[in-house]
Amino acid sequence: MLVCGYGLDVQARAFMRPALEWRFPRGDTVLAAAVAGVCQLDVWNTPGFVPREGDRLALSLVFLASSVALLWRRRAPLAVLALVYTVSPLLYLAVGAPEALGTLLPQLVAVYSVGRYSDVRSLVLAAPLVLLGTAIHELKDPHFALNGPTIFYWALLAAAWPVGHAFRQREQTLWALSEQADELQRRQDAEARVAVMAERARIARELHDVVGHGVSVVVLQVVAALGLLEKGELNLATQRLLTTERSAREALAEMRRLLGLLDENDDASLVPQPGLSELGDLVAQTRAAGLAVELTVRGQPMELPAGLELAVYRVVQESLTNVMKHAQPASAHVLLSYERNDVVIEIADAGEQPKVPFTGGRGIAGMRERVALYGGELTVGPRPAGGFAVRACFPIEVT
Question: What is the pTM of this model?
Answer without folding.
Answer: 0.44
